[in-house]
Every structure is written in C-alpha cells, then in structure tokens.
Amino acid sequence: MSETLGETVSNAINNFVNETFQKSNSSAKIPATPEGKLVAYTALISMAVVPIIIGAYRSVAYLEKQKLTGEKPDTITKDDAMKFPLVASCMLFGIYVFFKLFSQDHINILVSFYFFILGIFAMAHIIGPYVEKLIPASFPNLPYHLHLTEGSEENKSVLLDLDFDRKYVVSIALFGLVSGWYAVKKHWLANNLIGLCFAMNGVELLQLSSIGTGCILLIGLFFYDVFWVFGTNVMVQVAKKFDAPIKLVFPQDFLVEGVFGKNMAMLGLGDIVIPGIFIALLLRFDKSLKRDKNLYFNSGMIAYFTGLLTTIIVMTVFNHAQPALLYLVPACISVPLGVAFYKGDLEAMFSYSDEKSEKTEPEKQEDTKKSD
C-alpha cells in the first residue's frame, strides 16, 4: 500500500512539473475572451490618453521655457504637413521591402540597438528628473561639462556642449537596464514604458505652426492610414514584424496568464502622437485666451476618447484591424472646431500660432507702432 501511495504521489508531482514546464515554454496563444478583451482595450485607451494629457501640459511648459531662452522651436509648417503622408508612405513601404529582402532577425538586431539608445534618452527626458529627486542628499554629486569642438580657432564648430551631473549618470544607467531588458526579452512591460516615453516626448516637442496646419496634417494622415490598412496588408505586416517600441500592447489573456500573456492587442504610437500634437496645440490656444477652463483641450480629449472607443468597437465587431485615424481625425477636428464656431472663437483659433504668442510685451508694442 505504501509503495502504491508513493508511486501515486511521485506520478502526480511529475505530471505537475511537466505541465508547468510545457506551459511556460509554449508559444501557443490563449484565445481572447470578452472579459480579456475588455481589460486589454481599457488598458490601451488609458495608456493612450495619459501621454497626451501629460505631453500637452509639458508642451505648454516647453513653450514658456523657449520664451525665456529666446530659442525658436522647430515647428511643423504647412509644407511639412502636406509632404508628411508621402514621406511616411515611403518609409513604411521601405521597411516592408526590407523585411521581404533581408532576414527579419538581422533587421531586428539593428533596430533593437537603435531603439536601445533612443529609449534611454526618451526615459531620461520624461522620468529622469523624478528619479534624480529620489537619490539621497548624501549622494556625492558633482557637475560635469562635456564640450567637443571640431576644427581650428578660425573655423571651430561646436559638436557637443552638454552639462550634467552624477545623478544624471545614475539615471542613465538605470534606464540603460530597462532598455537592455527590452532589447533582450522584448517584454511588453518594457515596451510600454519606453513607448509611453516616446509618445510624451513627441506630444511635448513636436509643435504645429497653426490650427490650419494641424488640420492639413490630420486629413493627409487620415487617407494615409485608410489606404495602408484597407488597401494593402503592408501596415499590419510591418506592425507585427517590426520589433520595436513603436506601439503599445497589452495581453488579451492577462486574466489567465498575467504578465506572461502572449495574445496582444496593440495600438500604434502614431495614433497617439499625431492627434496628441493637435490637442496640445488646442491647450496652448486655451492658455492664450486666459480663460478659467481649457474648453478646447477638453473637447479635443473627449473627441479623441470617443474616436478611439469607436475604433475598438468596430474592430471587435468586424474582427479586423482598423485604421484608428479613420475615426480619430474626424472627431478631433470636428468637435473642437464645432465648439469654436458655437463660441465665436473660430477666427481667433485659426489665426493663433505659438510664434505670435511668444512675443514679449515690448515686441508687441513695437509691432503696434509699426502698424500705426
């Protein structure tokens, strides 16, 4: 009896170990349940909304900083906006051809190294200041100045002029570990952390020259997105094969597999950054009006949320990838402009630009004298 019981226990342990080992090494995807999809898409919507809000407010602070330093921002002009869909199409098709002609593994090695570097500095810009505040005051911090020039005295040009300290070096090392984690493991948590930082950087630093320019850019990318998703399978194939943090993902089998889930729902960063820079411009317009409520920013965020929710509903019903800008662009343009028309701010909205708002009071007085 004791031998039979021992064999039974031994067999049970062996079966448990074998099943666990097979489960951990299995690449099979668990089918998404309605509950799993709800969790995944709720997470994606949240991760899409947050970087737009944070990036928009950071863009206001970035503009204020430029006013103080006198720097001129690199803005997206109307010419840039009209060319952008064509340039983006060439880049997208070029990547697709590369995957057809060359080994996907070799391409992804190069891409991993490229985004390893970009990811470090993207996280340093967004999260770095908060990490440095957590470093104890007893830390032996010292400043450094890195200055690199090229040429002789007469033809000398500055290649690098960087001020930093030891706390910054510590944060860079920490973010290097996160980027290394993504490069080696490709874990979706590392992907999302880097991707969110990319999105916030994009919304903060990419500035549209005017509302009209933003409308041109959004409408052009509306047709770009529709063509490459519905007209061909290029965008879907690139999104699946391009192993880089250019999209946010969340496992639809999260309720079963947790952080080890493999059945991913995804949202491209372009569907966050492109509408996001337009919504950030709306916030800067709100600030220029000096009113209590950020009416146009709030209307833009409501429109974005509604458009993204519509995208997910249609995608779920028809079980087919959807070009998110097909739903986001009409919403993000029509709702704020409709509110502006109702409030009588439409002319002021289209005449607004960051460059005009950057003028100091003496400059404005000088312009008034010239016009008189």
Describe the overall structure.
The chain is built from 16 helices and 6 strands. By secondary structure, the protein is mainly alpha-helical. The chain has one domain (31-141, 172-357). It has a two-stranded parallel ribbon with strand order 1-4. The chain has a two-stranded antiparallel sheet with strand order 2-3. The chain has a two-stranded antiparallel sheet with strand order 5-6. The longest helix is centred in the N-terminal third of the chain and has 36 residues, at 34-69. The N and C termini lie far apart (109 Å).
Structural class computed from helices and strand pairing: mainly alpha
Number of helices: 16
- What strand line-up does the widest sheet have? 1-4
Instruction: Give the strand tally.
Output: 6
Number of domains: 1
- For the termini, the CA-CA separation is 109 Å
Mean pLDDT value? 86
Contiguous runs where pLDDT drops below 50 for at least 5 residues: 19-26, 360-372
Question: Can you give the helix content as a percent range?
Answer: over 70%
**Residue share in β-strands:** 5-15%
Form type: globular
Order of helices and strands: HHEHHHEEHHEHHEHEHHHHHH
What is the makeup of the main sheet?
A: 2 strands, parallel
Task: Evaluate the radius of gyration.
Answer: 25 Å
